[in-house]
Design brief:
43% helix; 4 strands; four-stranded parallel beta sheet; alpha/beta; 267 residues
């Protein structure tokens, strides 16, 4: 991220407009904001838009911690562990949509990327998050939930002799949905709590420059890079982007596991 910030400061001035038409996770636009520029983040992937929006939304951190502690207490009280509890939870709580997976996946639909236990526990956690009344807190908790999905699934491959939690989902290692030969059952709440710490650190890093007073300087747009008609002619001072690798990595298709849980449109 530092390299992009250096480029912004060398080639632009405070107040200038920086565009990334393949915005992804929003690094360019966020760095622009951090260096007192304005930023436009465009991406066709609804998952990317969700992530940037949830990261930059203004949230009271103590209220977020309080909400997390409340959810944790309720989750641990209701956590489905037995076979009967798991069956009941799957019927009662939100479940992943059976979105069709890309060719070459080990299973045909996204809901099959999770064991019954994982679906029951993730469903309970999502149910508790959705009960939050504050939309900013809910968005932030769902951002944490999205990070949790990287580990709590049947494609999660542990990394060699390292600790169980140091692996990754197969989409990042193999660019396809590959069921792990020996799926690992990780402790959900332990890793959800780790996501809280990371989100708090990230929001602390950006809060001085990206807050309720400056959000007017950031545009997060779901759309195609071939249609930027919403941007006024000659208004952009600097374009910095990292285009996708054509068809080599099907980013949209590989986001299906997240679409299934986050209620995002699949295309």
């Amino acid at each position: 991220m530092g390299h992009r910030a250096d480029l912004h400061q060398e080639l632009t001035c405070p107040g200038d407009l920086v565009l990334d038409p393949f915005g992804g996770s929003g690094v360019t636009a966020i760095e622009a904001m951090m260096t007192r520029r304005r930023g436009i983040n465009v991406d066709i992937n609804p998952l990317a838009i969700f992530m940037v929006d949830a990261l930059t939304v203004n949230v009271n951190q103590q209220e977020l911690i309080n909400a997390f502690n409340d959810i944790k207490a309720k989750y641990l009280k209701l956590e489905p562990k037995s076979e009967e509890q798991i069956k009941d939870a799957i019927k009662k709580y939100p479940q992943p949509r059976p979105i069709k997976l890309p060719e070459g996946s080990d299973v045909p639909t996204a809901d099959l990327l999770f064991s019954d236990k994982q679906k029951a526990q993730l469903g309970l956690l999502k149910f508790l998050i959705q009960k939050q009344k504050d939309e900013s807190i809910k968005k932030t908790l769902m951002l944490m939930f999205s990070g949790l999905l990287t580990k709590i699934n049947l494609t999660y491959h542990p990394s060699g002799n390292r600790s169980e939690g140091r692996g990754n989902a197969s989409v990042f290692a193999y660019y396809r949905y590959r069921i792990a030969p020996r799926p690992v059952e990780l402790e959900l709440m332990k890793y959800f709590e780790k996501r809280l710490r990371r989100v708090l650190e990230a929001k602390n890093d950006i809060r001085l420059e990206i807050n309720s007073d400056t959000m007017k300087n950031l545009q997060i747009v779901k759309g195609s890079a071939i249609n930027l008609s919403f941007i006024a002619d000659e208004s952009v001072d600097y374009i910095y982007t990292d285009p996708p690798y054509a068809d080599k990595i099907p980013y949209l298709d590989l986001s299906a596991m997240w679409y299934a849980w986050l209620d995002l449109e699949s295309k």
